[in-house]
Amino acid sequence: MIFEGVRFAWPGSARFRLTVNNFVLARGERLLLIGPSGSGKSTFLSLLAGIVAPDQGTVTVLDTDLGHLKSSARDRFRSEHFGIIFQQFNLLPYASVVDNVALPLSFSPKRRARALAHGGVELEARRLLDRLGLDAAAIDGARASNLSVGQQQRVAAARALIGSPELIVADEPTSSLDRNHQQAFLDLLFADLDRAGTTLIMVSHDESLASRFSRVVRLDEFARVERGTAA
Amino acid sequence: MIVLRLALQSLRNRWGTALLTALAIALSVMLLLGVEKVRTGARQSFTDTIAGTDLIVGARSGSLNLLLYSVFRIGNATNNITWESLQDISKAPEIAWVVPLSLGDNHRGFRVLGTTPDYFKYYKFRRNQPLQFASGQPFADLFDAVLGADVAAKLGYKVGDKIIVAHGLGNVAFVEHDDKPFRVSGILAKTGTPADRTVHVSLGAIEAIHADWQSGARVAGQAVSADDVRRMDLTPKAVTAALIGLKSRISTFKLQRAINEFPKEALSAIVPGAALQELWGLVGTAETALSAVSLMVVVTALLGMVTMILTTLNERRREMAILRSVGAGPGTVLGLLVSEAAVLVTTGVIGGAALLYVALFALQPLIDRIYGLYIPLNPPTSYELSLLAGIILAGIVAGLLPALRAYKLSLSDGMMVRV
């Protein structure tokens, strides 16, 4: 994954501007990205996942220049190669747990094929949930919104992992969990990542987690955020 | 596919508001379709009331007025037409038959029609059906009466019963022809026309019950008994109107003109179909207004739906971001919200149509009995179907409004989710 001379501003807001001159991440790495809120990490992740394209420069992921893809192709690319975990409220509240886990497969034929190769969508979803420590009662409970926050994060992790995407992006996935649950969650997540050799980019402001990662970088070491006065 | 499934799940999650929204649309569709059904039903039942008659003759008046009082028993004749004039007209060689009509009395609120036995032969309704007898037969004796189906049903009469006719048209009669009771000789089968609410007697009977009357009141000391009256000359002096059948329709306008220019008396002859057209022209404005109002109700319901979706949009930005993160494009987000609108409006339209048919099925006999309006339970006409399809289309277009808003939001939100 390579960022080169990237400049980006959100359309309609002239105030905020992110510049990344050079940033490279090798396959299989475990990156911990440290940045307080407002440091541009959401924008950085949006660029990385191809939700937005850079105004200048190139973002290359898995040898693909995202800037050269049309937005629909970027959406497709994201569904095929990324698993994304948010800080909280990761689930569609009205869908079942299994449907939530299987959601990316509806948009990615490759990941669906991989899940099918592992014995079917439902089976694979349940296996992942089981490995992440979610019991059957919670899985078959009425709706995703009835789960505890810790359970919800595990479902989100299962959704990110299903169909084995190459990159997992986690935006402070443990910040809404207490310390014990944090450790347990990361143990389970890392165990699964090791199995497939998946690249992990995790954002956090908690430097105590650093020992688990192959690389720890502060966002402000390579990215510059400009905040002009109100335009 | 996944989009429709998510839309359904999302709606099920908010089933309360979704149901109310669909119900509002359903009720508005029911109203719109109901107005349309009543409109066509009313037209049909008017058109069905008179068939096989080529001309209607009466005293000079507006053609609509003549049509309404002679055939539909609505309103009153301004004047009568003398028996001599009618005889003169009847001599025209183009005429096949003439059925005189004499109105002015009632039996407990039902109009009494004096006519000839030919009435049962020549008066036709709904695609040229003649009147059928449910029981009994046409009047033979002077004081025989033939009842319409509704009269017999409402008042519980059967063949052989005695009835008394009251003078005038009011429901509450103060003066009755109680000295000359009638015997029910026959009861007609239900027709869905004013004939159902009419008591038919012979022209002679109308003369007979008024034999001892002058200027609308009984003349004291001159009572004529029912037996005496049989020996009198009961040829009417005047009738209210007459139905005319022609040997050939080609001569319709020639004869109409001849009657309109009849030298001895001011008469009018009308072609029923043309007079009905005049009626539609008159009530057309009211129909249009009614349709416009019900259409506005549909628009209101659709606006309600758009409002419902728009208000949920902010709390659903999180949901949009999740969908975007798993690879859904903004187009999918747009599709999701349009699908929701489509599901709501389609449910509403189908539900509304179903509600209307259930209501029609349940209320049809009641409407028929109270208003004399027979609304057939037909499958929707192609016009009604296109109306319903139009509503669904309008609902989907209206659904684009919140969907486009969501599309923009999901573009600008990216991976950031502001809750």
Number of β-strand runs of chain A: 10
Report the helical percentage of chain B. Answer: 40-55%
Distance between the termini of chain A: 33 Å
Average pLDDT of chain B, rounded to a whole number, is: 86
How many β-strands of chain B, per DSSP?
17
> What is the strand content of chain A?
15-25%
Strand order of the largest sheet of chain A: 5-4-1-2-10
Main sheet attributes: strand count, strand direction, barrel closure of chain A = 5 strands, antiparallel
Structural class call of chain A reads alpha/beta
H/E series of chain A: EEEHEEHEHHHHHEHEEHE
Unreliable runs of chain B: none
Number of helices of chain A: 9
Please report the first level of CATH classification, the CATH class of the domain at 29-39 and 70-218 in chain A.
Answer: Alpha Beta
Q: CATH homologous superfamily of the domain at 29-39 and 70-218 in chain A?
A: P-loop containing nucleotide triphosphate hydrolases
CATH topology title of the domain at 29-39 and 70-218 in chain A: Rossmann fold
- Unreliable sequence segments of chain A: none
**What is the number of domains of chain B?**
2
What overall form of chain A do the CA principal axes indicate? globular
